[in-house]
Amino acid sequence: MSTRQSIERGERGERGDGLTPIELYDTTLRDGAQAEEVSYSVEDKLRITEKLDELGIPCIEGGWPGANPKDVLYFKEVRKLKLDRSNVVAFGATHRAGVEADQDPTLRALLDAETEIVTIFGKSWDFHVTQALGTSLDRNLQLIDGTIAFLRKHGRRVFYDAEHFFDGCKTNPDYAMRTLNAAEAAGAERLILCDTNGGTMPWHVREMIVAVQAVIRAPLGIHAHNDSGVGVANSLTAAELGVTQVQGTINGLGERCGNADLCAIIPNLQIKMKRRCLDDAQLARLKEVSRFVWEITNLQPPTHQPYVGESAFAHKGGVHVHAIRKSPLTYEHIKPELVGNRQRVLISDSSGKSNLLQKAADYHVVIDPGNPSLAALLDQLKTLEGQGYQFEGAEGSFELLMKKAVGGYRRFFELIGFRVIVEKRREGEEAVSEATIQLKVGDVIEHTAAEGRGPVSALDHALRKALEKFYPELQEVRLLDYKVRVLAAGRGTASRVRVLIESGDAEHKWGTVGVSENIIEASWQALADSIEYKLLRDHAHESGAEGRAARVVVQGATQGAAEQRARRNGKRPSSGGGGGVNRRKPSEKRGGRRERSEG
Length: 599
Prior knowledge:
Number of strands: 16
Shape: globular
C-alpha cells in the first residue's frame, strides 16, 4: 500500500468507507449545566433545545428529572415544543441498592418525563462500586440489569453510560467488561464508554475500545471529559475506531475542565474524517449556535475557540495577510464559511455584505443585495459591536436594526421621558421600585406609573401599562429572562454593561439587547426593542403612514380607558386628554408632590 493510500485510509477511519454517519448526542443542558458559573433557567434550556434542534442534533439530553424541580418542569414544557430533528433524552442513575427497580422513585420520575429514550449511568469501576456506591460488585451488576430491564419493560429505549469505564479498565478490566455485558444483555441499545475523570490518554482509549469491540456486539459510544485537554482527541479516536455515538457539549461546557467540545468535534468528524454528522446547511450554523449558547449562558465567548471563535480565521501578520489575499488556503485549514465563520484581516477588516446578507437570511429578513443601505448598515453593526452589542440571542433587536436601515420599520410610540425610583424605607425591609413614564402614541401623550419587584420590572410594567390601551396584544407579552454582563473590567461601577432580555407571548419567544454605562438605560433599550419587535411582527400586514393604526386605536380607546380608571378610583371622569398617572399611596406621603418624568 502506498503512503498516499495509507493516509487516505487514515482520513476515512479504520472502519468502513468513511461514509458511515455518527450519531451526535448533546449534553449541554445536563453536563454543561454543571460547569462553574453556569445556571440555566427552564426558559434557557427550552431556547437551547430549539437551537440544537435547528442544528440537527439527533439526541439532546435534557436533564435528570428525578434530581430537581427545574428538570421536572423542563420535561413538562419541552413536550410543547415542535422539534423537527431531535429526540429529547431523560438522564438518570441505576436504582438504589436498597430497593428494587419498581420501587425506586427516581426511575418513576424518568418514566414520568415521557421521553422515548432514557440514558442510565452505572458504575464500571470497582473502586467506585465499593467506595462511592457502597455495595458489592455482584449487587452492582444486578442494579444495571434491573434498571435497564425495568425501563425496557415500560417501552423505553435505553442508552447505558458506563461511568468511569476507562479508569475501571485500568484497575479491573474483567469487572469493567462484566458491567458492559450486563447492560447489553438487559437490552441497552448503546453502550457509552465514559472517561468521567478526563484523565485517559488517546492511545489508552484506542487500546480499550479495541478490547471492548472484541467481545461486545452492541453499538458503542464515547463520553469524554477534558481534564487532560484531550477530550476532543479521545472522541475522534473513538470515532476512528467505529463508535456509533459521540457525546459532548456545545462550547465544551461541563464540570471542572468541561466536556469534549462539540463545536470542534463536529467539523473534525465531518470535514476531516468524512464521517457525516449534519448536512452542509446545518454545519454552516455551528458558529451561530455556539454564540447563542455563550450568550444564554451569560459567559464571554473565548476569542480563540477552534472553528467558531472570532479569531479562528483572523490574520494580523503582514506575511500572512499578503498570502491569504492570494489564496486563503495558505493560512486557513478549511473555508470558514463551512462552519458559519468568516475570514478577518485585523488591520483592515475585509469581510462585509455577504456575512450581513447571511445573517439577515437567518433571521428571515429579506434584503436586496443591491440595496445601497447595506454598506451603512454594515458600518453601523461594526460600530455597535465595538460598543459591546452582541446580537446572538438578541434576534429581536437585530431584526429591528435591519428594518430601520433597509425598510419595513414602523414606529409605534415615542419616549418623552421616564423616571425610576428605588426606595428603602427601613432596615430589614425590601426596597420598593417605582417607574413613571411618559410616551407619545400617535397624537396622544400617555403618562403613567407602575411598581415592580425591582427597577427594571417596574419600568417594564410602566411601559406596557402605558401602551396596552393602544395595543391590547401587549397584554400577552411576558418578560421571561433578564441577564446583565459587565463588558469592561477596571472601571468599577462605571463599567459598560450589556443587558439581554428574553420576552415571549403565547406563540413566540425573542431576545433583545441594550448596552450602556447605566444599567437602567441599557435595560430600557432592551425593553423598548422587545415591545417594538412584538408590535412590528403583529402589525406587519398593515400599511400606511407611520402611526395611522395607532391613531385609529387611540380615538376609540383613550376616553373609555380614562373613564374606567376614574370609576375604579371613585372619581368623575376627567375632561382632559391623555391618561393620568396612577400613583401609589406612599408617594402621597412624600407631600403629594407630582413627579416629573425625565429621561
